[in-house]
Every structure is written in structure tokens, then in C-alpha cells.
Amino acid sequence: MPFLMRAPEECASWEWELDHFAPPGLASALSTAARMSESLRKHGLLEPSQIEWLWFVYGVGGIGIKTTLPVRGRIDPSDLAQRIERSRPSGHPNAQVGNLTVSGRGTWFDAEGEERHEQDLVVLSVDPDEYQLTADVAVYHDIWGYFDFRGYPHPEIHKRNAPRLAAALRELEEILGTTATTGDATYFGRAEGHSIEMPDVIDGRGPDLTDRL
């Protein structure tokens, strides 16, 4: 497999409501993103390279401005908080930080066991909403499921990658002190436990999803 096809919607996602883990707000969101991204980095799934968000104003909504800041492998919450404050849009002094998305490269293994790297293999989001802190982990590639996007089984790729994602999700649950809930289903799949739900199989093949890639 020379390259990975990426779905426009997640193949699976896992969500956490973190009322009992940390208070809402930006400081908590940055600390949570740092701890979660470090766990994903340790499992080789996400080497953070940037964090981005949309700005909004209470009572107004989104103001159409996105900010992206580079990070170098690890998130330093205190340094990042200062950089975020300096990046506040000058024309909107009351602008607030929206959902924080952490992205970067991750490592996966092909059918022969060769190590490969892919951008946004796993995407982490933490929402600093003033009422409730929440987090989300999403995947967009077919290596986590038993079938590829064409519907062909790829058991060796699945065996070399899916357990790594499951181990990382279990570790995140330990860190956060709560079990993840699975996100909504999309055309490309949905989560089941710590893995991808098995689709309907006909004559040994799963669904061909390439019409929407």
C-alpha cells in the first residue's frame, strides 16, 4: 500500500465528558490536550505539529477567523496559553477560543510490517467551553478496520495497527478517569468499543466506500 486514502468524515470517533476530570475553560483544555497528546505520541499515533481553533464572541457567534500555531512534538500549556493570548484578533478584544484541534503525523505499519508515516492519522480535539470540558479522538483511514475502503479484507494491516489504537484509547480512559462514548456513525463507519464496528459482509467483502472518497 503506497499511500493511505483519507475519508472526508471520520471512520470512528471517541468522546469524553470531563466534568469530574478538570473544570471548563482554556487552561484546563490546554492541560488536557497536553496529557492526551503525550499518550497518543507515546503510542506513535500523533506527533503534534500544530494546534488550531476558530474564534468566537459570546452573543455573536463565530467571527470567521481561524488561528493555527505550530508546536514541536509536545504541548506546553503555559507557553501555549501566552501565545494564544498574543494571537487574539485585534479587532475583537472579547474573542474567545473555540474547539482546539491538535494535528500532526502518526506511524502506521503496512502488510509487510514496514513502518510508514501519515499526516492526521489520529486527530485530537479538546473543547474549552465555559460550561463543560470535553475531548474527542477521531480516525479517518481504513487501517483500523478489517476491510479497506474498497471492501477488501486486509487482516495483516488491521492486526498491525488496530491493537495500537485500542491500547491508546484504554490508556486515555485511565488518564481521564472515565470511559469514552462512541461518536455518531458516518458513511465510513463507527466505533465499537475500542475498535471499528464490523460492517455487513457479503461474499467475504465489506462495502465499497470509494464513491465518496
What's the quick description here?
The protein is built from three helices and eleven strands.
Word description of this protein:
This protein is of the alpha+beta class and 213 residues long. It has one domain (12-212). The chain is built from 3 helices and 11 strands. Helix 1 packs across helix 2 (77-86) and helix 1 runs antiparallel to helix 3 (155-176).
Topology:
Elements: E1 12-17, H1 26-42, E2 47-57, E3 61-70, H2 77-86, E4 96-97, E5 100-109, E6 115-119, E7 122-127, E8 134-139, H3 155-176, E9 181-182, E10 191-192, E11 195-196
Antiparallel strand pairs: 1-8, 1-9, 2-3, 2-4, 2-5, 5-6, 5-7, 7-8, 10-11
Observed structural traits:
alpha+beta, 213 residues, elongated, 23% helix, 3 helices, two-stranded antiparallel ribbon
- Shape from CA axes? elongated
Please outline the major beta sheet.
Answer: 9 strands, antiparallel
The pLDDT mean sits at: 96
Percentage of residues in DSSP E strands: 25-35%
User: Structural class of the secondary elements?
Assistant: alpha+beta
Number of helices: 3
Number of domains: 1
| Computed Rg | 18 Å
Distance between the termini: 17 Å
Total strand segments = 11
